[in-house]
């Protein structure tokens, strides 16, 4: 054994303790860590030959790289709907690496059964039915891709074609209809060979990002019976707008379509009585995307996909080889998603659900929604600041006087907060997304003050 490896093996308890102590110091300072200022350039180092051992690597990381890492795990990183990692999720993620399970199959480990249990917990939490099966994937992009791939196979089934076996050329174009599809849907359609141009935008309601169901009905009628995929939104990224899922489901009495619901973070509305009506009808979807490293507050990368047609899912993603078990009624996970080998990313989700339950996570949703409303109310009192949409859930979308990029940079360089730019109805805007388990009303106040100071220096 290499001498560095042998030494680290002998010293493993102390090395893990040192890493634990360092991580504890980092987490303890999150509230005051600069959230996302422009990092200083780091001079590249040459490839190590002999290596410095774990202690040396930790020291080099702390010196060279850690100072430039963002405070994205903290309470005022409000970009991209990014959660943090609850204490239980962090423990689960550490143990994921320690046990280092490959969840591609069910042989020789209970890891796959643990994932199944976690998926069933999530299914119940989001109000889906027992006919919805699921699996873990890396994020919303992969969850959307998986759901759309199954929808593509369903379209072929309607026309007597197996796309998985015969290829997309045997089927031709598959119309995909949506009011305000997330960018990951466009990416998924490109990867799946359906093409970004297969997405046909449908008119949204005036001043909204929710689809006009009457316009959707017209678009479906124009297909003259050809099967389609409808991508509905349970929470758009700019304004957290929700499509009327019940009204969309009613259209299936007249038109054939696969309903995929992108509920990446809006699905968590199901956890609170005040907002559960927003996802009414989610259980009728054919496939559903939920991103767990958002509001469930587990570490990247973690999401789940659900579908009511696991048979078609297996048809698309099956991976057969002599060294793999045969496909059964309880298929291995390598037959369910694009990945074969896959880490036990379900363990962090299992830990946080086992630790805090539905009630604990509902409290996170309630508290962060309250912080978003607080931010919206206080921003609207600043001169020249305009809310571009009601604060429906956890995102505040607002316009500022002057140049958006300049204000955005000033806020980031203050170290107080990180926001993201967007464009809503043709207007440049800023977007603050609340989903971190640490965030409270006081953090919203600090963000308001950071925006006020940024405006005072950029728009005097």
TrEMBL record:
Keywords of this entry: Aminotransferase, Decarboxylase, Lyase, Pyridoxal phosphate, Transferase
In-chain residues carrying the UniProt-annotated modification N6-(pyridoxal phosphate)lysine: 294
GO biological process, one term: carboxylic acid metabolic process
Alphabetized InterPro entries for the sequence: Aromatic_deC (IPR010977), PyrdxlP-dep_de-COase (IPR002129), PyrdxlP-dep_Trfase (IPR015424), PyrdxlP-dep_Trfase_major (IPR015421), PyrdxlP-dep_Trfase_small (IPR015422)
Keyword Transmembrane: no
Cofactor(s) annotated in UniProt: pyridoxal 5'-phosphate
Family assignment from sequence similarity: Belongs to the group II decarboxylase family.
Name of the protein described by the UniProt record: Aspartate aminotransferase family protein
Native source organism of the sequence: Actinoplanes lobatus
């Amino acid at each position: 054994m290499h001498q560095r490896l042998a030494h680290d093996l002998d010293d493993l308890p102390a090395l893990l303790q040192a890493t634990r102590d360092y991580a504890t110091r980092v987490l303890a300072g999150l509230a005051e860590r600069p959230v996302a200022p422009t990092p200083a350039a780091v001079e590249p180092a040459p490839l190590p030959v002999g290596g410095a051992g774990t202690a040396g690597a930790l020291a080099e990381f702390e010196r060279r790289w850690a100072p430039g890492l963002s405070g994205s795990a903290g309470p005022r990183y409000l970009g991209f709907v990014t959660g943090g990692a609850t204490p239980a999720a962090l423990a689960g993620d550490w143990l994921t690496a320690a046990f280092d399970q490959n969840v591609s199959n069910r042989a020789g480990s209970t890891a796959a059964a643990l994932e199944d249990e976690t998926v069933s917990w999530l299914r119940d939490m989001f109000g889906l039915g027992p006919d919805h099966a699921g699996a873990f994937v890396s994020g919303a992009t992969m969850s959307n891709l998986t759901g759309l791939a199954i929808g593509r196979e369903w379209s072929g089934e309607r026309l007597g074609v197996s796309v998985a076996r015969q290829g997309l050329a045997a089927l031709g174009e598959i119309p995909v209809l949506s009011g305000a599809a997330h960018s990951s849907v466009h990416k998924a359609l490109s990867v799946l060979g359906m093409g970004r141009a297969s997405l046909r935008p449908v008119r949204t309601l005036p001043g909204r990002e929710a689809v006009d169901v009457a316009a959707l009905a017209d678009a479906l009628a124009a297909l003259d019976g050809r099967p389609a995929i409808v991508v509905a939104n349970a929470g758009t990224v700019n304004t957290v707008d929700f499509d009327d899922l019940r009204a969309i489901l009613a259209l299936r009495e007249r038109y054939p379509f696969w309903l995929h619901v992108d509920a990446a973070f809006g699905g968590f509305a199901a956890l609170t009585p005040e907002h559960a009506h927003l996802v009414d009808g989610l259980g009728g979807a054919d496939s559903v995307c939920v991103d767990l490293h958002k509001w469930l507050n587990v570490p990247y990368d973690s999401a789940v996909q659900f579908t009511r047609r696991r048979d078609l899912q297996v048809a698309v993603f099956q991976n057969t080889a002599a060294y793999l078990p045969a496909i059964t009624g309880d298929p291995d996970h390598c037959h369910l998603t694009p990945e074969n080998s896959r880490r036990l990313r379900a363990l962090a989700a299992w830990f946080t659900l086992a630790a805090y339950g539905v009630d604990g996570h509902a409290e996170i949703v309630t508290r962060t929604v309250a912080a978003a409303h607080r931010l919206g109310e206080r921003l609207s009192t600043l001169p020249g600041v305009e809310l571009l949409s009601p604060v429906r859930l956890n995102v505040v979308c607002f316009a500022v006087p002057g140049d958006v990029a300049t204000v955005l940079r000033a806020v980031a360089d203050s170290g107080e907060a990180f926001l993201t730019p967007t464009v809503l109805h043709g207007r440049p805007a800023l977007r603050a997304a609340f989903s971190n388990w640490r965030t409270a009303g006081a953090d919203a106040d600090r963000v308001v003050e950071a925006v006020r100071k940024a405006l005072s220096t950029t728009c005097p």
